[in-house]
Structure formats: C-alpha cells, structure tokens
C-alpha cells in the first residue's frame, strides 16, 4: 500500500525533494489544507502549494487528502485546477512524527480573497460572477455527465481563481464514482462524506439515504452544491445553516428561478448543471459573450471577426477593467501572435494595453507587438505605425535596431504613399534608438530617396524629420548631410510648404553651422527666397536671413576683437529653435471602406508657422473632399518633376530636375547668374549676339599619332577625371548627399557670358579667319567613343602616312 501511495503522490523522499520554494500562506483554504504561495526552483515561476499534515499514519483525514491528490492528478479539464507535482514527507514536531502531503498546482488564490481584492459593484460584479459560475458549472457538468463522478462538496471554499481571473474547481478529497447503476451496492457511495459540512449537505445526504442517492441522477448532489455557491457569492457571507438558502433577496432576479431548481427538495427534479449553462438568462451578458467569442475565435469567419474587433474597443470600456486587462488582453495578444486574429484586433489590443502600467505593458503586450512587426499583412503594419508613439518608449535600443527597424524600413519603398508617410513619421520615435551605423548606413539613404518622392507631403515631412533627428547624428554626418539636404533639395522644391520646411529645418539646426558655412552655403539660398511667390515662405526667409546674418555679424565682431574661433548661431536663435519641428503636411490617407469618413486636404492649403516652444507647421483643410488618387493630391503650378527612381544613390538626378543646371560648371549650385545685371548694356549685348552666331566653317582637328604616345587635338582635349572618394572615406554609395553637395565658392573672375559653359575661350580676333569653337571634342587613341551617339562603331585606325585634308583659308 505504501508503494502505491508513493507512486501516486511522489518519490516520498521528503520536502528536500520538492523542486519548489514555499512562500507565504493565504488566510483561508478548503478542508483543513494550508494554501501557500510558491515559486519554482528552476525558472522562478509562480505556483501554489497545498499541504496537509496528518496527526499519524492512520489519520482518516490524511487518507482523504491522498485521495484528493490522486484525483486531481488524473482529472483534466480547463475549469479544474491544474496539477503540477506532489510528494509526501514526514515532518517531526518535537517527538511527534507527522506525515505531510504537498500538492503543487498552477498559481491560484482563494475566491473569497479575490472578490475582496476586486471589489466590484453593481452590474460589473454580476457580470463577473456570471462568468465565474459559468466556468464552475462547466466543470461540474464534466464530472457529473461525462465522467460519472460526484464532487460532493461544491461551495465557495472549493473554488480558486487564476491570475487571468478564471475560476477553477478543486477540493477533490470527497470525489467518488457514481454507482447508481449497481443494484448490489449497499454501503456509502461517498467514502469521505463526513468531510462535508452539515450546512452544505443536501437533504438526502444529511439523512445518509444512500438508496435515494443511488436512484437520483448523478448531478443531484452537486446541483445542490451549486445552489450553495450561488448563495455565498451574492450574500457575501459564508453559509452557516441550510435554512439560510431560502433567502433570495440578494440573488439577481434573472437567476432566482434557476437557483430554486438547483435546490429542489426532490433530487430527481433538480436542474442539471448542463441545462443551467445552456438556458440560464443570467449568463446572457456582454462579458460572457465576449469571452466565449474569443475562446472559439478560430471557428469564426473573417466577417464575424472584423465586426467583433471593430466593436471591441467600445465594448471594453463597459466591461470590468480588471477582467479586460487580465483576461481579454492575454486572449487578444495570443490570437494576434498566432494569426487567428486579423489587423482590426490591433487597435483594441493597444487600447487595452494603455490601461496597464508601463512594466505590465512591457511584459504582456510589447513582446506580441515586436513579433507583429515581422508580419507581411499591410493592414497590421498600418496599425503598428499609426500607434507607435503609444508603445515606442518601451522598446529597448537593441530590440529597435535588430528586430524592429529592419522590418519597418521596408515601408520606405512601399508602393502605398500612405504607408511611406507613416514609416517616415515613425522614425521620430525609432531614430533616437538606432545605432550610428544604422542611422548613417541605412536610414539616411532611405531619407535621401524620400526627399525626391512623388508626393509633396512626403518630401516636406522628410525635411522636417531630418531637422528633428539632427541631434542624433554624429558631427561628420551632420556636416555632410544637413546643408545639402535643406538647401539644394528643400529650398528648391516646387511645393511651397516644402520650401518653408527647409527654412524651418535650417533654423532648428543652427547650432551645427559655423560662420563660413552660413555665409557661403546658407545665406545665398535664403536671400533668394525673400522674393518667393508664397507669402509664408517669404516671411520665413526674412526671419531666417536675419537670424543667420546676425550670427555672421557676431563672428565679425569676434574677429575684430582678436578671437578667431567659430561662432555658431545657437545663441542668436535660442528662442526659435527649442523643441521639435512639427509635421508640416498631414495629407495622405489610406483607402477606406465604403461609408468611412475620410478627410483629404484640398489643393488650396496654407502652411501656418508657429514659433512658440516648437517650430510647427500644419496644413489647414477648408473642407473634406472625396477620395482621390494620391498622385493628384497637392498639385502645384511650379512643382518640380520628381527624380527618376532609377538613381543609384538617391541624389544622382537632382541636378536634372530643376535643382541645378548641368550644362554650366559654374552654376552647379543653382545660383551662377546672381551677379549678372538684369539688363545687359548694348555693347555687351552685341558681343553676346556675335558669340551665339552659328559657325559655318568646319575644322578638322589635327591629330598626331605616335606609338606609345598620347594623342591630343591641336585645339583641345578634354580629359576624363576619375571619381574620387571623399576625404573621410565615404563614396557616393555610402553618402547619399554627396551628389548634390554645393561646390566651394569660386575665387576667380567670372566671364560676362552666362549662357554657355564652353571649354574653349570664344574671344578671337576679328581678322584671324580661325573658326570659333564652342565646345571641345573628345579624342581618343583607340577610336572608342568618337561620337556622342550610342551604337556608332569607331572607324579602324590606318597605319602609315596619311593625307590630311585642310580647309581653304
């Protein structure tokens, strides 16, 4: 017998073999057991540890405890307490040896303690009690109808609650088989019925009328117990006498008829717990229906899921808050993580998560959100990016750099303009957590392409983002990127808000520019915008010009005083650069379902500047418009065509799209004709007209070819200069702003002719007869590339003396 018990309850090697730590006990427990908190020695996970110490080896109560441990080990149901481990040891108290049983289960706490802790009132209390009773009724129905077992002692003390607020049935010490079909049975059907309190015993059990009990249905005794549980729940007191069950004043009216059927005096007529689950009006409430839907979510079709999740945020506000955060939220997170829930479930998940503390959110919600970033569902990506501000603060630097950003960065090249814009705006939260390698090697390349995006709103907000994340870039990167991005691209954009954003970004980053950069690379661009066609751009240009000019004056004063140190403009603009730049354009909207309200900005938008604590711009929309293709949004009369998407570095086509003139080497910065008079004098006009006269005489270049020598034209040879990498080792592939970097200011005297960038001087004497050559020709020794047209094959070179045709002088 001892061997059998050891096999049932454990090794019998004593408490030292128990792989759990015993903690503080609870104030109450069922049937003489001691209920303690505990943790696992392996992973420190929480458990509950029940212990019972018998007076001696022949203690009848100890035998019942062993029966309870054995039954709990073999009975498995979602609403029955989960067994983990058990063992039996001999504890010595003085000279008395007491055999003790230890039973380890999932972490739970007594129902009475949990009710006091939750302190629910009114409708919310009734809804939670309905859900708990629904679970216990399912457990009792499983024992009675499916297993033909009788629990025998269903009451408030025999119910415990999990951390997710689920109710579990335990206290299986009295549990026995129902032997009503055995006519030869004469003894007690419940071996340990003496453990049941007198106030909880049904009339036939109180009389020990086993014949009547065997003729009754299997659920008769436990249905009575369910009635006792209902009374104790709603009266908020322990049942002391059986007569108290007649008092129904505290029980909800919708439950009273079922309560009376459970406590029927005739055992055969007592309500089956299964019928109580299916037919009781008390169980038809929002909480029960919501949890039941979540538990069978895999069986629902997509239409039912969408309808349910769109209503869930509003419904969750009406349900008991503890139930939502501890029960519904884990169910929702699990459904999203394993794919049974679609994108509409993300919004209620984040809304419920906002009701948690930061630590709880990081442990319960954030792991699921991080996994969702790898989802290929575009709708889920929309939802994550729209709400990233609500959970982005809890993301660690390593998680963002290694797990989040690689997936988010795919949105920069997405075909959906709305997703590109959301991805761009999410960088305001993500960028501060990125490493310098990711910032300079990946993020800046994506931003360089977005600054020539086909959508004006995206181009504008890209400039604003660069201004906001400038403080997170290292000094070398700021020197290389900021001025080029704000002046060469933003200030020359055909979209007025983009130009305004460029000015504000320059002012927000003044601390990173020295006086030389301000004078040679910033002020020339700003001054031109003081006559811009847009009044808001002009206003901002004047403001910025005054600020930067004051910085240069300060530098001049220091030079006169003998201090040659560089003076940034920070001190001058401290009041206008505090805070982050606001998004200038919020224009793009995803395609909505029919009937959804969508607000699309009209073409007549105005950008307002706020120079308070932050430099913020916003587009004011006069009235919502119907959905239109995104390519038609923000049409502007002077808007430049976007750069070709085939550019290798994101900036190679900048000078071909209105940002510079590639035919004039002196005008690569776009401002080559600033110092020319607007109306040329007559003498200069005649010289220009002569220079522009077409050439009618053709001249063949004289070529001298010697073995091993370099061939040059007698007129001119334009040599090809190989590309050179930047001084800091960044090539064009690594530095997306290198292709548009403005050249240093020229120190040579400029020619008066600004119309053409000729390689050979056109100033010739009038009587010389020599033709005026407007452009040098490439001459190569192998004949390759002898013509500018593609596909033209070079003529083979002939050896020996050749006759050279000369034109008549």
UniProtKB/TrEMBL annotation:
Query: What ranges does the record give for the region Disordered, renumbered to this chain?
Result: 640-669, 693-809
InterPro entries found in the cross-reference section: ARM-like, ARM-type_fold, CIK-Related_Protein, Kinase-like_dom_sf, Prot_kinase_dom
In terms of superkingdom, the source organism counts as: Eukaryota
Q: Which Gene3D superfamilies is this protein grouped with? A: Leucine-rich Repeat Variant, Phosphorylase Kinase, domain 1, Transferase(Phosphotransferase) domain 1
Q: Where is the composition biased (Low complexity)?
A: 696-711, 754-770
All copies of domain Protein kinase, residue ranges? 1-356
| Name of this protein | Protein kinase domain-containing protein
Recorded source organism is Sphagnum jensenii
Q: Identify the taxonomic lineage of the organism of origin.
A: Eukaryota, Viridiplantae, Streptophyta, Embryophyta, Bryophyta
């Amino acid at each position: 017998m001892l061997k059998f018990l050891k096999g049932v309850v454990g090794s019998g090697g004593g408490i030292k073999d128990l792989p759990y730590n015993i903690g503080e006990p609870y104030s109450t427990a069922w049937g003489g057991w001691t209920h303690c908190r505990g943790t696992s020695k392996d992973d420190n996970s929480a458990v509950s540890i029940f212990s019972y110490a018998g007076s001696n080896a022949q203690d009848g109560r100890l035998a019942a405890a062993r029966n309870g441990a054995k039954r709990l080990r073999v009975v498995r149901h979602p609403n029955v307490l989960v067994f983990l481990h058990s063992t039996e040891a001999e504890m010595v108290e003085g000279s008395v040896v007491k055999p003790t049983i230890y039973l380890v289960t999932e972490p739970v706490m007594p129902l009475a303690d949990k009710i006091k802790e939750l302190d629910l009132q009114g409708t919310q209390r009734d809804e939670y009690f309905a859900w708990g009773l629904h679970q216990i009724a399912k457990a009792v129905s499983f024992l009675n109808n499916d297993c033909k077992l009788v629990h025998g002692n269903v009451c408030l003390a025999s119910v415990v609650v999990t951390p997710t607020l689920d109710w579990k049935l335990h206290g299986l010490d009295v549990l026995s088989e129902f032997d009503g079909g055995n006519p030869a049975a004469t003894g007690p059907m419940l071996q340990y019925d003496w453990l049941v309190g007198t106030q909880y015993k049904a009339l036939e059990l109180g009389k020990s009328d086993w014949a009547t009990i065997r003729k009754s249905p299997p659920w008769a005794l436990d249905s009575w117990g369910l009635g006792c549980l209902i009374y104790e729940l709603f009266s908020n007191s322990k049942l002391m006498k059986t007569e108290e069950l007649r008092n129904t004043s505290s029980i909800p009216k919708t439950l009273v008829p079922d309560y009376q059927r459970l406590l029927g005096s005739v055992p055969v007529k007592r309500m089956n717990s299964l019928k109580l689950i299916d037919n009781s009006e008390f169980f038809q409430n929002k909480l029960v229906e919501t949890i039941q839907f979540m538990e069978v979510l895999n069986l629902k079709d997509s239409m039912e899921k969408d309808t349910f999740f769109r209503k869930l945020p509003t419904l969750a506000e009406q349900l008991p808050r503890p139930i939502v955060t501890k029960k519904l939220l884990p169910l929702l997170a699990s459904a999203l993580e394993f794919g049974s829930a679609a994108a509409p479930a993300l919004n209620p998940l984040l809304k419920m998560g906002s009701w948690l503390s930061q630590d709880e959110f990081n442990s319960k919600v954030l792991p699921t959100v991080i996994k969702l970033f790898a989802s290929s569902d575009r709708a889920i990506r929309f939802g994550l990016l729209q709400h990233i501000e609500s959970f982005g603060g809890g993301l660690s630097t390593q998680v963002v750099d290694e797990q989040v950003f690689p997936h988010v960065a795919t949105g920069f090249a997405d075909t959906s303009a709305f997703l590109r814009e959301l991805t761009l705006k999410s960088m305001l939260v993500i960028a501060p957590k990125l490493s310098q390698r990711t910032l300079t090697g990946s993020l800046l390349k994506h931003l360089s392409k977005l600054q020539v995006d086909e959508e004006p709103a995206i181009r504008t907000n890209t400039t604003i983002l660069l201004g906001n994340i400038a403080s997170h870039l290292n000094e070398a990167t700021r020197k290389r990127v900021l001025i080029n991005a704000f002046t060469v691209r933003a200030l020359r954009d055909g979209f007025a808000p983009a130009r305004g954003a460029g000015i504000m970004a320059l002012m927000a980053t003044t601390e990173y520019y020295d006086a030389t950069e301000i004078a040679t690379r910033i002020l020339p661009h700003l001054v031109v915008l003081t006559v811009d066609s847009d009044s808001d751009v002009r206003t901002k240009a004047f403001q910025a010009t005054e600020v930067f000019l004051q910085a240069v004056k300060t530098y001049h004063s220091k030079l006169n005083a003998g201090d040659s140190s560089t003076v940034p403009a920070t001190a001058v603009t401290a009041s206008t650069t505090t805070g982050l730049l606001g998004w200038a354009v919020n224009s793009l909207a995803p395609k909505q379902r029919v009937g959804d309200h969508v607000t699309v900005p009209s073409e007549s938008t105005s950008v307002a500047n706020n120079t308070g604590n932050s430099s913020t711009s916003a587009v004011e929309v006069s009235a919502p418009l119907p959905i239109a293709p995104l390519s038609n949004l923000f049409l502007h009369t002077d808007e430049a065509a976007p750069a070709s998407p085939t550019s290798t570095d994101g900036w190679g086509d900048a000078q071909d799209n209105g940002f510079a003139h590639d035919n004039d080497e002196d005008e690569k910065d776009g401002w080559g004709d600033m110092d020319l008079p607007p109306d040329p004098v007559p003498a200069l006009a005649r010289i220009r007209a002569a220079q522009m006269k077409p050439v009618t005489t053709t001249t063949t270049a004289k070529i001298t070819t010697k073995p091993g020598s370099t061939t040059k034209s007698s007129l001119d040879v334009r040599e090809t200069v190989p590309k050179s990498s930047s001084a800091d080792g960044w090539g064009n592939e690594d530095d997306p702003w290198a292709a548009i970097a403005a050249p240093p200011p020229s120190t040579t005297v400029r020619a008066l002719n600004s119309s053409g960038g000729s390689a050979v001087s056109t100033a010739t004497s009038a009587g010389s007869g020599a033709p005026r050559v407007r452009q040098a020709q490439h001459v190569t020794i192998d004949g390759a590339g002898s013509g500018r047209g593609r596909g033209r094959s070079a003529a083979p070179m002939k050896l020996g003396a050749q006759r050279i045709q000369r034109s008549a002088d």
